[in-house]
Design a protein that fits this description.
single chain, 329 residues, alpha/beta, 10 helices, 17 strands
Length: 329
């Protein structure tokens, strides 16, 4: 996999004028797949960040969050209101049915002490967490051309682990509320979110996705869970949106799901969004965020850009971390 900067630069230059032909979009009214296997494979190579920050780089797209970017994000704060972007590890409907959360209370008397032990297998489609860059593999390679089998062993990730973000994340967030855009309370399972949704939201709200930002997508999955119970399935990102992340030089991506939509690209497995973002772009993903209160706050304030802060647990050689990110308005 090689980075083809000349092709990418030319495409970026044309975006604002005529659009890049490789990113042509079909009619979205059918909720049909918008990308082919051939397009995906070309994006994995041509839109890759491999080598961009040197062969020894382990931060990936997080390099785009510079000191100036953090100061820009802090400058977005107006009211000082803070909102959690994490979902409880269990609610009235339970937790992940395949890998449920466990709380083991440890109570002693004489002296009286109360503590607990937590059991959480956080990757998957329920728990709020952040993915490390060693979490996903494409053609036996990790981000920046590292060999999967040489890098990841039973001892953990020798490179690209979650401690790369040990100093935390502070940047500007742009929240795209797709149900609000489409005039529904939440998206139904299998509904695809397209690039056009993001661009339409920018036009409607004035929010702009810029280099170094974290892009957040609300599908309303937790609102649906409240209304209908634990009925399974989520909406997700259509693979055709992936070049948008490169066009805008997005640093991080998150949503209230695990991002993938079923049957995303015919002939490929489910995790195409994870493969492009983590392996090609070197982008940490924030999965299963709870964006309900953040969307309500943003709508009340009329501001869909805000300060985003997150600090993963410092697990040496870890593939990610449970997390509770904070938005500050």
């Amino acid at each position: 996999m090689m980075t083809k900067w000349a092709t990418a630069a030319m495409c970026l230059a044309l975006i604002g004028i005529i659009g890049c032909a490789a990113y042509g979009q079909p009619d979205r009214s059918t909720n049909a797949p918008g990308a082919t296997q051939e397009e995906f494979e070309s994006w994995m190579a041509e839109l890759s960040n491999w080598g961009r920050w040197g062969a020894a780089d382990q931060l990936g797209a997080a390099n785009l969050i510079t000191q100036d970017k953090r100061l820009q994000a802090v400058g977005r704060v107006e009211t000082g209101e803070t909102v959690s972007l994490g979902h409880d590890v269990a609610d009235e409907a339970g937790s992940d049915p395949n890998r449920p959360f466990g709380l083991d209370m440890i109570i002693s008397f004489g002296p009286d002490r109360i503590r607990d032990r937590l059991d959480i297998d956080y990757h998957g489609g329920f728990f709020t967490h952040v993915d490390a860059l060693c979490h996903v593999v494409y053609e036996d390679k990790l981000y920046n051309d590292h060999n999967f089998r040489e890098t990841v062993t039973e001892d953990g990730c020798a490179l690209l682990g979650i401690t790369g973000l040990r100093h935390g994340v502070v940047t500007k967030a742009v929240l795209v509320d797709v149900p609000r855009l489409r005039g529904v309370p939440y998206l139904e399972p299998g509904t695809r979110v397209y690039r056009e949704d993001i661009e339409a939201w920018e036009r409607q709200t004035g929010a702009t996705v810029e280099p170094g930002d974290i892009l957040l997508i609300r599908t309303g999955r937790w609102a649906r869970r409240t209304a209908e119970g634990d009925v399974g399935g989520t909406a997700g990102m259509d693979a055709s949106f992936l070049p948008f992340l490169a066009d805008r030089d997005v640093a991080l991506f998150g949503s209230d799901t695990a991002h993938e939509v079923r049957d995303n690209i015919p002939g490929l497995d489910l995790t195409v969004v994870h493969k492009f973002t983590i392996v090609a772009r070197g982008m940490n993903l924030f999965d299963n965020l709870d964006l309900e209160l953040a969307a309500e706050t943003a709508a009340r304030l009329g501001r869909w850009e805000f300060l985003f802060m997150a600090s993963p647990v410092r697990v040496p050689r870890g593939t990610g971390s449970p997390i509770n990110p904070i938005a500050m308005f």
